[in-house]
Amino acid sequence: MGAPSTLRVGQRLQASIDRLVFQGSGLGRLPDGRVLFVPYSAPGDLAEVEVTDARDDFVRADLVRILTPSPLRAAPPCPYFANCGGCQWQHLEYPSQLHWKREILRELLVRVGKLGGVSVATPLALASPWGYRSRAQLKVVTGTASGAASGGAGLHIGFHQRETRRVVDIDRCPLLDARLNGVLRTLRHMRDPGLHKLFPRLREVWLAAGSGTGAGAGAGTGEVIVSLFARTQDRAAIRLLFHRIQAEERGLQGVVLLDGDPRQHPRLVDRHGHGAITEVVGQHRFRVDATAFFQVNGQAAEMLTRLVIEGAALTGTERVLDLYCGVGTFTVPLARQAREVVGIESNAAAAADAQHNLRANGVTGARVVQAQAEQVLPSLEQGGPWDLVVLDPPRQGCSRRVLEAMSGMAVPRVIYVSCDPSTLARDLGILVRAGYRCRSVQPVDLFPQTFHLESVALLERS
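Below the sequence we write its predicted structure tokens.
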């Protein structure tokens, strides 16, 4: 292998794609040995690509045209695919997506976690790889604002364009269930004069549809809530919006107006109708606030809960810590089988929901503490030995302080529920070097057509 050849941005070349990597791009190798990343390519493609970034050790390029297509390719059904950044893998047959998610997880465990020999099972899949999302976080710009990736006046609502902050205006999304697509369609076609002050101040719209009676993904039943993130006090507009949407979508339960960063505990400004929906997971009902985290749909929550309960294998004598417990999705069923469960949740709305859900489901022997896990673990350590810790952190994974505190507590068993294979690999590596053994990892594909992957890892003290 010689020195890297000189490549210019804009230069075109032919490339063969060998595999897929985390974040969804295809990977090939140049004659000089550098790796080449090409979004929307597939293993087995021979393609013409255009260089967008050339470094000493890697090159990024955009796909120009397929010269010889991979047999793994499928026709994307979405007209916005490859412009909208919401999906990365609609061009791949679904069995191939499952295969490569498993391979990527294995590779990350070795490369990031420095872990060899970990058993990674075949990914579990949802009932359908389409229409499965009962939650969506949509971006908004109005008029002919520079933030829109497509022209025209009115409300532009959709997802960010790939690798930009521009909004791709969409009519519908094949990943959303029928209820959310109905609300999206209604919002896009509103022209009421009473909303002309509200729309320019909108930044995001969050849609959530509850499973209600326990119906599966895409069933089109249950409750719907619309959350608006906007800098306005226009309460009249919220009432108008509620009635306009409800006239088209009878399942609408409420419209909620919030101010502040959507991901940093936004402030409630006003609400018309209800501010929470009901999710049914197994035999339990859960109240979920408009801003509280919940899985992509009720079926996803049931799959993860089953894996956690089976992995816990409780006998009724155990003391369990449920860190990042959210609305109590795991806390409630764990408390049915343990002597004591303590859930820890930093989000005030989610913690309040979790406390409500314990009471509403008639659960005793459990409590929820609203706090950062890092802050409360030292006091919990002093409260005596714990038998099991369940971790379900956000995408950035656990902080080192949490992992160090757990290691110091010497809890015999850990169940780690992860929504990011890269941070899972990092954290499992830390726990293994602190004295744990990773028994198994079960991937769960909750996000078909994307590179995202949920996993449940079982660990025990060596």
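The first helix runs from residue 94 to 111.
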